[in-house]
Design a protein that fits this description.
Helix content of chain A: 25-40%
Structural class of chain B: alpha/beta
Shape of chain A: globular
Order of helices and strands of chain A: EHHEEEHEHHEEHHHHH
Number of strands of chain B: 4
Radius of gyration of chain A: 21 Å
Order of helices and strands of chain B: EHEHEHEH
Largest sheet of chain A: 5 strands, parallel
Number of domains of chain A: 2
Number of helices of chain B: 4
Strand content of chain B: 15-25%
Helix content of chain B: 40-55%
CATH topology of the largest domain in chain A: Rossmann fold
CATH superfamily of the largest domain in chain A: NADH:ubiquinone oxidoreductase-like, 20kDa subunit
Number of helices of chain A: 10
Structural class of chain A: alpha/beta
Strand order of the largest sheet of chain B: 2-1-3-4
Distance between the termini of chain B: 17 Å
Number of domains of chain B: 1
CATH class of chain B: Alpha Beta
Largest interface: A-B, 20 and 20 residues
CATH topology of chain B: Rossmann fold
Radius of gyration of chain B: 14 Å
CATH architecture of chain B: 3-Layer(aba) Sandwich
Oligomer: heterodimer
Amino acid sequence: MSVKIAEEWLACCGGCEVTILDIGEPLLDLLPKLEFVHIPVLADHKYFGQTGEKDKLEIPEADVGIISGGIRNEEHKEITTEMRNKCKTLIALGSCACFGGIPALANQFPLQELYDKVYRGSVSTDSADTPNQDIPPLLDRVYAVDEVVKVDVYLPGCPSAPQIVAQALISLLEGKPFALPERSVCDDCPVKREKKALVSIKRPLESMLDLEKEELVGSRCFMEKGFLCLGPVTKTGCYMTSGEEQPHIPRCIKGLMPCRGCFGPIRKDANPMVDMMGAISSIGLNAQEIPDRAATFYRYVGAQGRLRPIPKRN
Amino acid sequence: MTNTNFDPIILSFCCNWCSYAGADLAGISRLQYPTNVRIIRVMCSGMVHPNLVIDALTKGADGVIICGCHIGDCHYLEGNLKAQSRAEAIKLMLQDFGIEDERFRIEWISASEGPRFAQVMKDFTEEIKKIGPSPYKV
């Protein structure tokens, strides 16, 4: 008997769906055991029956539900609730579903301010009213899936990695639990740390070229070279992309880029910005030089109350 | 906005070697200072991680003060320098969290400065009373 899978995309870019397709050869072994009963990215399935005859949104029953994307509007919320009702196990796929992701950067501003900016404030736009016909109204902010319904498995990443999705699906098929380790990216990083910064903070892409000449293993830590790296506050797991290859090197580090934090905080209630500011100032970097602190440190994790409009001072 | 009934909660992280001894001296000298101050003894001001301060301020404290040895006097040589650079970071983050700068302070108080300890706590409590409860308090 095959396992039924329902997949749904909400406020996202579709990269995580590509990740599923990108599983490659392991997918061939998996496919006979899987049956996709609902997956808008691949197959047309209407929410209200094929001719729109039903008056309630309906998703077929499934053993595993996969949701990618955060919850931005009323429709997303309704779909998410229906997914939870119909799926035995619910997977949040990608950083948007797990922590709000890039769309949650909008949580820094009140909704009205966003509308004003998008429909009236920007110079390249003809001023117009906020559209309100035939579209679902936006929620007050972007929500992560687990703020609305219970989530069983988290597969973060922007996008998540095919190896991780495959592993999670395989363990679910075998009835085993799946969770990423509670370690930081630094724990898997091969560079050398001496806890003293050599220079001041650099712009993200400044003189990255020098790095290419260096051998990664044994070179100095990105942070100590002045590049902001979210490794210390980010959950590891992206090293799984290197497969059998040893040593396991985190994905961006392998490409000589500092970690951007897409795997989210190491523990659920951690606060990456506060931890990062501590880490930065204790190796002797000047925290004042960081451009756009909140958006830099909460780039992928703005939901769950982390990014919010700054309260006005009386 | 002065609220006479407002009883602020103030946390004070005091380093074991100077400021806690200073607080001790204030105590044995029978100096009076407001009871709003809750002292937490830490081994060094340099070990007070910013998330302790931010957590305190977002979860119910109205003010946080870190007290350490004077610069150059640190028992661990440069712990207070670390505390100082962390304090800079904390002040930046207060803006991001929408908390008034005045709610966080860092002071250097040596073991012999009992009266100064009492004075600092008095001033800080007064100031917090003046700005009122933390915006995170419901």
